């Protein structure tokens, strides 16, 4: 039988423009942007010689050294779903919990909903992961592809040693891998990523797998951005993920299938009015000028519990200011960006001072304020949980501004014993999507 055509899907990374921490509570929303940096996953059949039976799924990240993971899989008794076990490659075994957990969840779901029950022994497949370079901050060599010679770099390290820039690689990976598997194994009548129904299935399954793999339930904004792209996001109630059996244990298969279809998912995604004014770009800088603080989310939540009234006042006012910024951007009011973002940053710093957490640390305040004076830059924020490792900028979308910012941050890094680098990524509206294969020339085996 000839091999069916490979299936490629990509999902974007994320950046919070407004609403970090607040979004952990369903009372508040966040303004999240998808990014032009995408994780691509290409699914292909593995052709076996006649008479050879293989039950193997290979996931490979060929941009990195030694970054290939091989899994066997089989259906377990008592409806425990598809149990995935990693196979040794040589002497080493190098785990990738995000890949492994996603395979358990998604293969289990596929086995449950597949109209073709003989597919219960799923054919072997190879999944190739190609991530845009900005997800990682190592120096790299550009091997390139036919169509785009500077797209996927070769990094000189295994993935586990790669330095992440914090663009949400795990969420984009889990989303793209989930979508590629669903598209590869299921007919479009059951799963079609280009439809609203397909995105709902994908979101619910990817959200569950991502939470399980990271061992905690966050707000889920990163999976929301990977599926839907830029949006206003209200989180789901965490209780929906309670009491899910472990993969391979009794009842996992019906529980996952029921979870995907459940009417209890109460997240809200709105793309309406989420946009940037024409000529304005959302850009990111990777900052490497200090140490990362751990446990920030825990500390902020502890302060919230301890100062209920004071924290509520800050959160409510911040929510209003975040909504105002979203509205001003949608209305194209570029002149108002500077004061609107300043008003948000003021309260983020208040939150930091009150909770004792450097959400916008002093060094980032100085950097952001200095960048505001660079011609073409409106303002910027410390995105997400915050700290010392990144800033997001609203700036004019032209080459001259880009050059000025690049030069400015380079000099800034030198003066502050570190490195600050303007990444190539930009805020982008679109979420997950099917891709043609041209981009991947030279990477697929
Ligand atoms: N190219 C890739 N191929 C396979 N797995 C990947 C790839 N990139 C990331 N991953 C998976 O995602 C994990 C990194 O996820 P993690 O949540 O720590 O970072 P992140 O999502 O990039 O950053 P942040 O959550 O700060 O935005 C890796 O350990 C690996 O399991
Ligand atoms: C603090 C929080 O709101 C954002 C964390 O963002 P990031 O992973 O630091 O980009 C937590 C969450 O939303 O899960």
UniProtKB/TrEMBL annotation:
EC id: 2.7.4.2
Record-level Gene Ontology MF annotations: ATP binding; phosphomevalonate kinase activity
Reaction(s) catalysed (UniProt annotation): (R)-5-phosphomevalonate + ATP = (R)-5-diphosphomevalonate + ADP
Signal peptide span: none
Pathway of action: Isoprenoid biosynthesis; isopentenyl diphosphate biosynthesis via mevalonate pathway; isopentenyl diphosphate from (R)-mevalonate: step 2/3
GO CC annotation terms, alphabetical: peroxisome
Enzyme type, top EC level: transferase
Gene Ontology BP terms: ergosterol biosynthetic process; farnesyl diphosphate biosynthetic process, mevalonate pathway; isopentenyl diphosphate biosynthetic process, mevalonate pathway
Top-level taxon: Eukaryota
Domain (GHMP kinase N-terminal): residue spans on this chain: 164-229
InterPro entries referenced in this protein's UniProt entry, alphabetically: Erg8, GHMP_kinase_C_sf, GHMP_kinase_N_dom, Phosphomevalonate_kinase, Ribosomal_Su5_D2-typ_SF, Ribsml_uS5_D2-typ_fold_subgr
Keyword annotations from UniProtKB, A to Z: ATP-binding, Kinase, Lipid biosynthesis, Lipid metabolism, Nucleotide-binding, Steroid biosynthesis, Steroid metabolism, Sterol biosynthesis, Sterol metabolism, Transferase
Entry's family note: Belongs to the GHMP kinase family. Mevalonate kinase subfamily.
PANTHER family assigned to the protein according to its UniProt record, in alphabetical order: PHOSPHOMEVALONATE KINASE, PTHR31814
Protein's UniProt name: Phosphomevalonate kinase
Taxonomic lineage: Eukaryota, Fungi, Dikarya, Ascomycota, Pezizomycotina
């Amino acid at each position: 039988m000839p091999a069916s055509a490979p299936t490629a899907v990509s999902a974007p990374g994320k950046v919070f423009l407004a609403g970090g921490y607040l979004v952990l509570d369903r009372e508040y929303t966040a303004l999240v942007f998808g990014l032009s940096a995408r994780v691509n996953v290409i699914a292909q059949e593995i052709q076996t010689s006649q008479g050879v039976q293989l039950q193997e799924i290979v996931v490979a990240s060929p941009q990195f050294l030694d970054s290939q993971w091989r899994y066997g899989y089989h259906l377990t008794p008592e409806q425990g779903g598809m149990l995935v076990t990693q196979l040794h490659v040589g002497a080493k075994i190098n785990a990738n919990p995000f890949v492994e957990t996603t395979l358990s969840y998604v293969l289990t779901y596929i086995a449950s909903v597949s109209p073709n029950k003989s597919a219960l022994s799923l054919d072997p497949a190879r999944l190739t992961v190609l991530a845009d370079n900005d997800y990682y901050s190592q120096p790299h060599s550009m091997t390139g592809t036919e169509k785009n010679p500077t797209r996927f770099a070769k990094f000189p390290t295994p993935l586990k040693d790669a330095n992440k820039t914090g663009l949400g690689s795990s969420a984009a990976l889990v989303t793209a891998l989930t979508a590629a598997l669903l598209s590869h194994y299921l007919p479009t009548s059951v799963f079609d990523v280009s439809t609203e129904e397909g995105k709902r299935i994908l979101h619910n399954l990817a959200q569950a797998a991502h939470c399980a793999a990271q061992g905690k339930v966050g707000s889920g904004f990163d999976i929301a951005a990977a599926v839907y792209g830029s949006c206003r996001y209200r989180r789901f109630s965490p209780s929906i993920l309670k009491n899910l059996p472990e993969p391979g244990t009794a009842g996992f298969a019906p529980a996952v299938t029921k979870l995907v279809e459940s009417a209890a998912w109460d997240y809200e995604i709105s793309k309406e009015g989420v946009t940037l004014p024409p000529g304005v770009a959302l850009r990111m800088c990777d900052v490497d000028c200090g140490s990362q603080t751990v446990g920030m989310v825990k500390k902020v939540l502890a302060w919230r519990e301890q100062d209920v009234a004071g924290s509520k006042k800050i959160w409510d006012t911040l929510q209003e200011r975040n909504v105002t910024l979203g509205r001003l951007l949608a209305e194209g009011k570029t002149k108002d960006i500077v004061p609107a973002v300043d008003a948000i940053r003021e309260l983020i710093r208040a939150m930091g001072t009150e909770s004792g957490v450097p959400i916008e640390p002093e060094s980032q305040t100085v950097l952001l304020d200095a960048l505001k004076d660079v011609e073409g830059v409106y303002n910027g924020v410390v995105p997400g949980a915050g700290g010392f490792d990144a800033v997001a900028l609203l700036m004019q979308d032209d080459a001259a501004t880009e050059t000025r910012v690049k030069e400015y941050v380079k000099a800034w890094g030198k003066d502050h014993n570190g490195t600050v680098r303007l990444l190539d990524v930009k805020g982008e509206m679109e979420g997950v999507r099917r891709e043609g294969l041209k981009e991947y020339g030279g990477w697929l085996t």
